[in-house]
Design brief:
It is a single chain. The chain has 18 helices and 7 strands. It starts with a helix and ends in an 11-residue tail after the last helix. The chain is globular. Strands 3-2-1-4-6-5-7 form a 7-stranded mixed β-sheet, sandwiched between helices. By secondary structure, it is of the alpha/beta class. The longest helix has 48 residues. Helix 5 links the parallel strand 2 and strand 3.
Length: 518
């Protein structure tokens, strides 16, 4: 009883000399990071408006006349460059046929197109299915090869690198990469290759992703909002301002000479695509982003798949930043402005600050200040700046503007995993090189729904869906909310209750698509 009675006095003695200064410092650091993020979003908004008003489209900045046989009838199909298309995959039972079929349907002279299906599958049944699909298209006259490896060394980068070692690749000028769920339109090559063909300084032409399952559930709508901003604003601005952006790993065309000059594929991180893009940029190559060339793809619709994807997308860039910082700083081939853009805009603000400040400030620091009333957070930092950032982020997907409230709550939940992954990448700790292929469902849900009348529907057991970290953070925010109701003055409890509910919903697994067990 005496020990319990002395707890308030002990807290008072610790709070003034230790907690208050420490929390004030944390608030100052987080406000600084929030301002950096705000200025970066504002800069992006101003530039994208300027790009649209001045019509700085790729068509006006680069020569992109169509390649046609009529220009020299004697050459015939030889007027077209030889293009290699690589389709890396791993146990893609539900979607393998989509990318293979779409690539084999590309409108390009058949004798100028080489297709590689790089199958790292470990399931022998799936491997046989993919092999038979390749044989089916080969019998139709498509120059397609099915390739496997003895191991998965280097994961995707290793498979792509192995595919480039074949002798016939020396005859190819360009290489296109499509992941297993990507379905390019037949005119994809006709709309992208001319930029490379007529402009020898360009190394990469990147297309935009279009999501076929964005309306599947609320979680896929949230992903669409984030990725649409990335493609419609970030990629567009970076392409227009300094001809550099991160390669998205798929739906892009590389000049093979540029790829080789940059050192080829490297598996030192889980973002081999970003690694290659930065190395090529440091060699002086330019990139072009084509927002009107859209390639159909699938968003991860289960929370488990999305969480693994976000770990890779957050950990990889942070680890790459650690490995390449000095290489970027000491490079002599690019301008100081480009170095600043890569280090500050591309890496520091977007890949590190954005993740860390979201979780630490809004899910830890703000709730903690409720217990320490001596620490005050200005409204511009906790209300106005995040509100403006959110509104600027909404321009990518106007149709989902009414979902902004849910998007904020969901992004704050996901910031838990992104912050953890970012720190793992920066510190090069435990799961830094973890690679889990993002699960694609394809039509599996439709087929299972059609059979639900004849089969007993059995969902995942409750404890298999539980996410303990989310439940823990939710409980913390909920307790902070009740404390604020009783003793607080800033009315943070309104936000804290809603945010805690979001963590609880994710914590009990009621987010995304729940796949019935067969």
């Amino acid at each position: 009883m005496d020990a319990a009675a002395g707890l308030p006095d002990a807290w008072s003695q610790v709070r003034a000399p230790l907690m208050v200064p420490l929390l004030r410092l944390s608030v100052a650091v987080c406000l600084g990071m929030a301002v950096l993020l705000f200025l970066e979003r504002l800069y992006m908004g101003v530039v994208i408006v300027g790009v649209k008003l001045l019509r700085r489209t790729p068509e006006r900045r680069y020569k992109c006349d169509p390649i046609a046989e009529e220009e020299d009838p004697e050459l015939g199909s030889a007027a077209f460059p030889v293009v290699l298309v690589q389709i890396p995959m791993f146990n893609e039972r539900e979607v393998y046929h989509l990318s293979i079929g779409a690539v084999c349907g590309l409108s390009w002279p058949s004798d100028r197109l080489v297709v590689q299906v790089l199958d790292d599958s470990t399931d022998p049944i799936i491997k046989e299915m993919v092999r038979l699909e390749c044989e089916r298209w080969a019998h139709k006259g498509i120059n397609i090869t099915y390739q496997t490896r003895e191991d998965r060394k280097g994961y995707k980068a290793g498979a792509l690198k192995q595919g480039m070692k074949h002798g016939y690749v020396r005859e190819c000028e360009y290489v296109v990469i499509f992941d297993a769920d990507f379905q390019p339109n037949p005119d994809y090559l006709h709309r992208t290759i001319p930029y490379l063909h007529h402009n020898p300084e360009i190394a990469l032409v990147q297309g935009r992703w279009r999501f076929v399952n964005a309306d599947e559930c609320l979680m896929t709508r949230m992903q669409e909002m984030s990725l649409d901003y990335h493609f419609k604003v970030e990629q567009e601005v970076s392409s227009s301002v300094c001809a550099f952006f991160g390669f998205n790993g798929t739906a892009g065309v590389w000049r093979i000479a540029a790829l080789n000059e940059a050192g080829g594929w490297n598996d030192r991180t889980t973002v081999e695509d970003m690694d290659l893009a930065i190395r090529a940029s440091l060699k002086g190559w330019k990139f072009v982003y084509l927002g009107d060339v859209q390639v159909k793809s699938e968003l991860p619709s289960t929370f488990k798949a999305f969480r693994f994807q976000q770990h890779r997308w957050s950990c990889g860039p942070a680890n790459l930043f650690r490995k390449m910082l000095m290489e970027i700083v000491t490079n002599k081939k690019v301008t100081i402005w480009k170095k600043f853009h890569v280090i500050y805009n591309f890496f520091l603000v977007r890949k590190i600050v954005a993740h860390i400040v979201t979780f630490t400030f809004y899910c830890i620091i703000i709730p903690t200040t409720i217990f320490v009333p001596e620490v005050h957070i200005p409204k511009w930092g906790c209300v106005y700046i995040p509100s403006i950032i959110t509104l600027l982020n909404s321009v990518g997907t106007p149709r989902s503007f009414h979902l902004l409230f849910f998007w904020i709550l969901f992004e704050n939940v996901m910031s838990l995993h992104r912050t953890k992954a970012t720190l793992i990448g920066l510190l090069e700790a435990g799961r830094v090189n973890e690679w889990v292929v993002t699960e694609k469902l394809g039509n599996v849900l439709k087929m299972k729904s059609a059979n639900k009348a004849s089969t007993k529907k059995s969902f995942m057991r409750m404890w298999e869906r539980l996410n303990i970290p989310e439940l823990g953070v939710g409980a913390f925010l909920f307790s902070c909310g009740w404390y604020d109701v009783a003793f607080g003055k800033d009315n943070f409890f309104i936000y804290l209750f809603f945010q805690s509910m979001a963590f609880f919903v994710v914590g009990v697994g009621y987010v995304g698509t729940i796949v019935p067990q067969s």
